[in-house]
């Protein structure tokens, strides 16, 4: 008969064959401390709305798998640099998908790896019961990974590993057998506050405390109008935002490219902005559908592309933006196009905005048009004064 320690060691060996970068074992006891923090988080209004709403489910593994005894946590490292990134040029500006969206959707990749682990476990324990989770499961992947000794949760709320930094995807498998747990790591952020200081919206309201509503990564995924104060802060990001990770000293120089599935296609992760304005649903699915960053569909990506073109003041985008302002059935797209036209300025943009002001029925879009016309005058005034 195999002992729990032998099962654990056999699973650890199997990770090498499966291409899993880190594995850890944790008890499936409820996450009581986390529950307290989540209650406060909710009271403060800091939730994104994308989370599992049931806090008991989020913190008690046994509500996902009755009789759960152990959680097996895994991590896969993803790359942070492209070999030959296409350049940004006037008239051919590009946007950017965050690194957690490079290559194939990690949900699928991690699930395959966990299924491989599950098959191996079943050879050792044929009647084991399991439940696999990757990101969209009820539990907090980060809390599980921390308890399993994969890394520690930094002040930026990312799970940080010493080997790969926080550039890791996390997933876990609940099992109804007891396996020896690993010890949580003792390392931490210490006195560092670099991520808190670097966050452009103040979304990191304290160490390890994120106001998701103010987080730009979350804001890139919303489908409504992007609040005015965030538009100048996106910096070309079409999906996600990662300044709090990019500045972290634990991530300095980290670029692991060994996971083939996450290798970025430069034309997909740094796409030209203008073609995104006219892309059809089918084309969008064909081109971006296998990426994690496509999960909210094309609308938020298009909205963010329009904002980026406005920020770049790309005059060559004016005809396409005017067409959106005139014809697009989605108020968010018409209104954001109005904002971008106001930013870019020029007589053609101005004429289109004035015509739209006469025609537009949607009150939100009307507001955007009026503001675009007013701001355009302010910009021109500023430029004249500076010139
Ligand atoms: Fe911790 Fe500093 Fe990294 Fe923030 S930047 S997560 S404070 S080590």
TrEMBL record:
Q: Which GO terms describe its biological process?
A: tRNA queuosine(34) biosynthetic process
Q: Enumerate the UniProt keywords alphabetically.
A: 4Fe-4S, Cytoplasm, Iron, Iron-sulfur, Metal-binding, Oxidoreductase, Queuosine biosynthesis, tRNA processing
The keyword Mitochondrion is annotated on this UniProt entry: no
What residue stretches are annotated with the 4Fe-4S ferredoxin-type domain? Answer: 180-209
> What is the annotated signal peptide range for this record?
none
Q: Name one GO molecular function term.
A: metal ion binding
- Which SUPFAM superfamilies does the entry mention? alpha-helical ferredoxin (SSF46548), ARM repeat (SSF48371)
Q: Which organism is it from?
A: Desmospora activa DSM 45169
Q: What is this protein called?
A: Epoxyqueuosine reductase
Tell me if Cytoplasm is a UniProt keyword of this record: yes
């Amino acid at each position: 008969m195999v002992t729990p320690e032998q099962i654990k060691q056999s699973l650890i060996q199997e990770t090498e064959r499966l291409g899993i970068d880190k594995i850890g074992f944790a008890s499936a006891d409820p996450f009581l401390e986390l529950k307290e923090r989540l209650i406060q988080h909710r009271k403060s209004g800091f939730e994104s709305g994308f989370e599992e709403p049931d806090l008991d489910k989020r913190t008690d593994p046994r509500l996902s798998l009755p009789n759960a005894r152990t959680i097996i946590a895994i991590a896969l490292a993803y790359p942070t640099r492209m070999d030959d990134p296409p350049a940004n040029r006037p008239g051919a500006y590009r946007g950017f998908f965050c690194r957690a969206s490079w290559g194939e959707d990690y949900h699928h990749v991690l699930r395959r790896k966990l299924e491989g682990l599950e098959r191996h476990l079943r050879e050792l324990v044929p009647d084991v019961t399991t439940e696999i989770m990757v990101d969209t499961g009820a539990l907090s992947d980060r809390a599980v990974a921390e308890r399993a000794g994969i890394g520690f949760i930094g002040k930026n709320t990312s799970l940080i590993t010493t080997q790969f930094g926080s550039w890791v995807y996390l997933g876990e498998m609940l099992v109804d057998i007891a396996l020896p747990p690993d010890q949580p790591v003792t390392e931490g952020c210490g006195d560092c506050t670099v991520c808190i200081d670097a966050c452009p919206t103040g979304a990191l309201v304290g160490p390890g405390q994120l106001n998701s509503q103010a987080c730009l990564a979350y804001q890139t995924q919303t489908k409504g109008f992007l609040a005015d104060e965030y538009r100048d802060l996106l910096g070309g990001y079409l999906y996600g935002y990662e300044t709090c990770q990019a500045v972290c000293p634990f991530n300095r120089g980290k670029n692991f490219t060994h996971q083939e599935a996450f290798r970025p296609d430069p034309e997909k992760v740094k796409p030209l902005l203008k073609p995104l304005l006219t892309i059809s649903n089918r084309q969008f699915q064909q081109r971006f559908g296998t990426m994690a960053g496509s999960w909210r569909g094309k609308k938020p990506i298009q909205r963010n592309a329009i904002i980026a073109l406005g920020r770049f003041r790309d005059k060559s985008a004016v005809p396409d933006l005017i067409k959106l302002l005139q014809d697009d059935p989605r108020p968010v797209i018409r209104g954001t196009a109005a904002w971008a036209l106001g930013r870019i300025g020029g007589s053609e943009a101005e004429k289109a905005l004035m015509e739209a002001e006469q025609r537009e029925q949607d009150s939100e879009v009307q507001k955007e048009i009026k503001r675009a016309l007013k701001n355009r005058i302010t910009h021109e005034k500023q430029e004249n004064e500076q010139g």
